[in-house]
Structure prediction request, 100 residues.
Amino acid sequence: MLFAISRVAAPGFAENREKNLQPHVDYLRSQKNILVISGATTSDDGKQYVGSLLIVNVKTRAEAQAFVDGDPFTRAGMFTGVTITRMNKGQFNPGAAEGA
Prediction:
């Protein structure tokens, strides 16, 4: 099952990002068997982080929550909220993301 995970950046996210970035990236790489896509969400001008969006392929909501809980960004308190929503795969066109 696919789950979309939307997280809202906490105040001070940008300041905390640098010191937690490598552990976060290492964690995401370790989860490549379930991680479909991930990325920061930003303001329209791209200058401010507002959160993140991830899609994981796991069997249960509990597994999606465990994925979130294991992320060093989560453990560092870098988000004020998280929403986990089950989703159905409709269109899938990874080529459309090229150059983004």
Summary: The first strand starts at residue 2 and ends at 9.
